[in-house]
Write a structure and sequence with these properties.
- The chain has about 170 residues and is α+β, with helices and mostly antiparallel strands.
- Helix content is about 35%, strand content about 20%.
- The strands form two sheets. A four-stranded antiparallel sheet has the order 1-2-6-5, with helices on both faces.
- It starts with a helix and ends with a helix.
Length: about 170
C-alpha cells in the first residue's frame, strides 16, 4: 500500500475490540512519533501511554471521547522544550505534538490498529487528574486499538473531499 492509499483508507475508529495491542506494534507506533518532524528538531513531545485500569478510568473522568479503547495515548508538549519564535512570540508545542500524533495515527493504521484524534477535554482537568508537571501541556488524546467488527467511518461524507482548487492556490 502506498502512503496515499494508506491515508485515503484510514478513518477515525470509535469502536474497538478487546484484542490487546502487541508490544512490538506499540513500540512501532511510539517510534513513528519519535521520528516525526518537530520545529528545530527540539522534540518537545511527552507521550503518556494510558493502559492500566486506573489510568483508563481516569480518562473516563475527563472525557467521554475515549470510546473504551484499550490504550489511550496522552500527547503533550513540554513547555521547556518547545521552539519559540522571537518575532511572533509563538511556540510550536501544539503543532509539534499534533504532527507526532499524526505519525502515530498513520503507523497504527498500517499495523491494522485504529485510532481517533481527540481534543474534547479540559487541559487543566487532564493535567490535574494525571498529576502532570506544570510545564507539561496536554494537547490531544489518541485512543487506539483494533477496530471492532462493526467499526466504520462516523459519517457517509468521511471519504468526501473538496476539490483541490478550493483548498490550494498558486501564487
Amino acid at each position: 500500500m502506498t502512503f496515499l492509499e494508506l491515508a485515503e483508507d484510514r478513518y477515525s475508529v470509535r469502536s474497538y475490540s478487546d484484542k490487546p495491542i502487541e508490544q512490538e506494534k506499540m513500540d512501532r507506533i511510539l517510534r513513528a512519533g519519535q521520528v516525526a518532524p518537530t520545529a528545530v528538531n527540539y522534540q518537545p513531545q511527552k507521550i503518556y501511554v494510558l493502559k492500566s485500569k486506573d489510568a483508563l478510568q481516569k480518562v473516563h473522568t475527563v472525557t467521554r471521547f475515549s470510546y473504551d479503547a484499550p490504550v489511550v495515548l496522552l500527547v503533550c508538549a513540554d513547555e521547556t522544550q518547545v521552539w519559540r519564535s522571537p518575532a511572533e512570540q509563538y511556540d510550536t508545542g501544539e503543532m509539534d505534538a499534533s504532527i507526532v500524533c499524526t505519525h502515530m495515527m498513520l503507523e497504527a493504521w498500517e499495523l491494522g490498529i485504529g485510532s481517533v484524534w481527540v481534543r474534547g477535554f479540559d487541559s487543566r482537568q487532564v493535567a490535574k487528574v494525571f498529576d502532570l508537571p506544570k510545564h507539561i501541556r496536554p494537547i490531544c488524546l489518541l485512543p487506539i486499538g483494533y477496530p471492532s467488527e462493526d467499526s466504520k467511518p462516523y459519517a457517509e461524507w468521511h471519504f468526501t473531499y473538496k476539490p483541490l482548487k478550493e483548498t490550494v492556490e498558486e501564487l
